[in-house]
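Form 12-C: Joint structure prediction
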Amino acid sequence: MSKVLSWRGWLVFAALAALPLTPWMSKYYMLLAFDALLFGAVAMSLDLLMGYTGLVSFGHAAFFGIGAYATAVLLERGVLSLWLCLGFAALAVGAYALAVSYFATARRGIYFALLTLIFAEVIYTFFRYTQTFGGSDGIQGLPSFEVAPGWAVDAPARLYYLVVTYLLLAYLACRVIVRSHFGRVLVAIRENEDRARFLGYNVQRYKMAVCLISAVLTGLAGALYPGRSAYATPDLLHWSVSGEFLIMVMIGGLGTLVGPIIGGAFFIVLQEKVSSYVQWYNIVVGLVLVLIVLFVPRGLVGLRDALRGRSGREAAG
Amino acid sequence: MLEVQEVSKNFGALAALAGVSLAVREGEVFSVIGPNGAGKSTLFNVISGLHVPSAGRIILRGEEVTGLAPEVINRRGLAKTFQITNIFPGISVYDNVRVAAQSRASVSGRLPSLWRRPDVEGPVMELLGAFGLAARRDDLAQSLSHGEQRYLEICLALATDPALLLLDEPTAGMTPGETKDATALIRQIAQSRRLTVLLIEHDMSVVMGISDRIAVLHFGEKIAEGPPEAIRSDPRVLEAYLGGADE
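Section 2 - Result
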């Protein structure tokens, strides 16, 4: 049995951990790195669905947003414990994901995508128009998490380490899952759902389970977000955010886990850098993405593999 | 082993099956033949759970399975191959059979399956070896030749360790030479694994050589049943085939 994480993988995480020690990591870059890695983790969670199971979710913003609101509600009421916030977010997102996945996985193909989108829009509308949650302003001016009483995650470097830790744990979890018995059934479902049923697999249960895992991982990332932004707003749940998550996975490389992390980070940095120069940054970002899809259809990881001359998609580990 | 009792299946106004009854005994090779459109594949789809019959009952190993889902019926000991090759094209030959074999691992369907990786290397390689696919274990399934894909499909079904194997035209699209080899191989594997086989076949030469008993379907009805010699000389069968201008 090969190791869950190669020495190269550990090296990358060691480099990420050492990054704040370098002199050019200003607060600005620390927070940009926070966003890049956080959304990289979200894209990786979505890859479990898209790349491994062949299910396209247009509603991941809802999982992210519910996680963020769960944290915001607690922080607003003075419950600062990071662990309580994460636990509450996981429960809230998990409950919602169970309901969505039950209905969405009852139908195939485009219906799955549509149902996840519709549910997410309902959640968006709910937060957008419910005054308890601040309506369109959301919940603003939140305090920082505390890992332990008196130990607040307030400085950019601390936030950065928080997200690196989360990414590492989530990545290890995903790696174990895709290489497990369960992960191989997911790939079988992607390849040929009917055949999987005739081999004795209850396909809907597997789809619901992977939706739940992907949603909770996304929700936990969402729960970390107010720690950096100090707010949760309905914009986080907007359908266009779900679209951005899909793009992150696509540009990184479907079914590779690492690819979507890179894709998510790339997308965030590109968007931030271009938007600091021009108002119409979305046009530039869109253009770059079109070029990637046209010329590197297997994503950034595919580019690396093409250069090395081997096939890209990690079929089943 | 399998009892099909007065099973009918209607698609709208079309009666694809009209009161068909069969009894397949343990350990035998039972074939269902008939011209195109006779209802053979529909019969298989009803037995394996893809379609719910309009009327009638299906008893598998003494338990009624009428209307159960395919994944449930598979776990009761029935595995099926398809007329049109139905494999996992984008993963390796080995991974194809592995995912089939591990569905019988004790961990399957339980929480530890999220991190455990049941070891099924032995049975997988044994199956690939028996069908001459061992050397191609790391190739993508879609890169196999047509004949090899047909074999891989049988491997998938066998990997779930069935008591009853349903083969839907296993030699479809094979050359006469391949058909002969395949027929011999199926017969041999059925014997060595003590399998009961229910076979749909179009090609009379395959059926005659391999079957213990044969049933003939024509326009959704069973018109004859018996050992190969009796079927060969049955006037109704001859008429159905000649009338259908099939052979």
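Section 3 - Comments
Chain B touches chain A through 36 residues (CB under 8 Å). Chain B has nine helices and ten strands.
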